[in-house]
Amino acid sequence: MSIRDIRISHHMLPLDPPFPAAWDTRPRRRFGATIVRVEDDQGRVGIGSGDPMHGLSEMLDLFIGQDPCALERHAEVLSNIGFHAGRPWPLDVALWDLVGRIEGRSAWRMAGGRGGTIACYASSGVHRTPDAMADQARRMLAEGFPAMKIRFGRSTLEADFAVLEAVHRAVGDGLTLMVDCNQGWRMPWDTQPPWTYAQALEVGRELERYGVHWMEEPLHRGDYAGMTRLRRETRLLIAGGEMTREWHEFQTLLERDCLDVYQPDAVCSLGMTHLRALAEQVAAAGCVFTPHTWGNGIGLLANAHLTAGSVGTAFIELPYDPPEWTPERRDFPLLTPVRPDEQGRLDLGDAPGLGITLDEERLAQTRVGP
């Protein structure tokens, strides 16, 4: 048994109306998806998606002819590639999907078999007015979500807190609330400096008044000392790590007690193979592992299978903020968009691998490049 072929294609969905992502100063008028397919010598195909994987096409010979089930070997090679080229981790996801199809096992069983369902929190992505955010929170509560994440980053902190106040007044304790401060990283054109420690602490003190569950990315991702200090000086859980890229960086975060909640995304950081090991370390340290996931449904399912099957968590991120961000937009590469049930839970099922089917017609319509 060997890998016969690896194919990478790029797709672009026009967005009309645009999606005004809270973390981006430019409204998004299109949404990209990169699909990677790994085929074995029996014609079985595993599917992954995520970053464009710049430079990977020149290194595919490192996998062709290899045993697809040698996941540890492939993860080490991908880690090396990640140093030299763009984030290659969607290929790791595709290999997991392929191995699941070969073995007839769902990915959550491959990850440890802890469980095949997982609760979701509704992750908002748009800066709305206080009244509109309150309405959105009522909607999420009515749809069965146990929790909701609010984005800060408006023109003033007063405007952010007005939104939090309106949401809290609308749903009370009906929803667990988290706040994403979006200070860990910036878009290439955004030169605004991250918060200082004093600013983050001031915000944290105010968030405590509202019973916010966690404060996400309150400081630059490399401010280890600040995160450790903030974790000790507030009652909030401090969350981060969504764009942390390398194993040694996560080890530093753990060793320095920087975070309560670790949020690496399998298609951006380390892949499913290495993140399974990291999840066990995070759980052993008494911390929470719950991946960030703001790509399409393939990455969402990869993170859900990995987490549900390995260490479990109270809830995982589900990007959902209609009408600007719907399952249909988010999951355009899939024949069936990913949706939780009426209790806000994803049933991952027992289909082999990730259990996904691509919408080949839609992918052909949205394909860009060769």
What does this structure look like?
The protein has helices at residues 71-84, 90-103, 107-110, 130-142, 157-171, 197-209, 224-233, 247-255, 271-284, 297-309, 327-330, 360-366; strands at residues 3-19, 28-40, 45-50, 117-123, 147-151, 176-180, 214-216, 237-240, 261-262, 288-289, 316-319, 345-347, 367-368. The chain has 2 domains: 3-104, Enolase-like, domain 1 (2-Layer Sandwich); 110-347, TIM Barrel, CATH 3.20.20. Helix 1 runs antiparallel to helix 2 (90-103). The chain is an alpha/beta fold.
For this entry, give a set of tags.
RHMD-like, 35% helix, Mandelate racemase/muconate lactonizing enzyme family protein, globular, Enolase-like_N, TIM Barrel, 370 residues, 4-stranded antiparallel beta sheet, Enolase_C-like, alpha/beta, 9-stranded mixed beta sheet, 13 strands, single chain, Enolase-like, domain 1, magnesium
How are the secondary structure elements laid out?
Elements: E1 3-19, E2 28-40, E3 45-50, H1 71-84, H2 90-103, H3 107-110, E4 117-123, H4 130-142, E5 147-151, H5 157-171, E6 176-180, H6 197-209, E7 214-216, H7 224-233, E8 237-240, H8 247-255, E9 261-262, H9 271-284, E10 288-289, H10 297-309, E11 316-319, H11 327-330, E12 345-347, H12 360-366, E13 367-368
Parallel strand pairs: 4-5, 4-11, 5-6, 6-7, 7-8, 8-9, 9-10
Antiparallel strand pairs: 1-2, 1-13, 2-3, 4-12
Helix pairs in contact: 1-2, 4-5, 6-7, 9-10
Domain Mandelate racemase/muconate lactonizing enzyme C-terminal: 130-237
Cofactor: Mg(2+)
InterPro entries: Enolase-like_C_sf, Enolase-like_N, Enolase_C-like, Mandelate_racemase_C, RHMD-like
